[in-house]
Amino acid sequence: MKSPYEILEVAELASDSEIKQAYLQKVKLNPPDRDHEKFQQIHSAYETIKNATSRENYALFNCPEADFDALLDQAFIAARPSIINADIFDKLLQASIDAKTFQIGKPKETTA
Q: Global pTM?
């Protein structure tokens, strides 16, 4: 989801007059009778950041949305699977666990 600054195409440090100018330009290009949804989006963005107080409120109370799909994709790319050859795979299949140790391969014979 785009931020109000992205919708109006202004910098986060833009002045009130710069934001109003960008808003008026966007409304001129997207009047409500042409594309009502786009106009509502532009108007809502302007209302959110139109003055210093509203920009402070936006900065304090806006929680950025996380793109969980992108985060998962990044996590799966970072966790690359290791390559296991047939010998290691065979040893893993023969692994056994006793009370104290994890053994790979055939369990060791213990002498008492």
A: 0.57
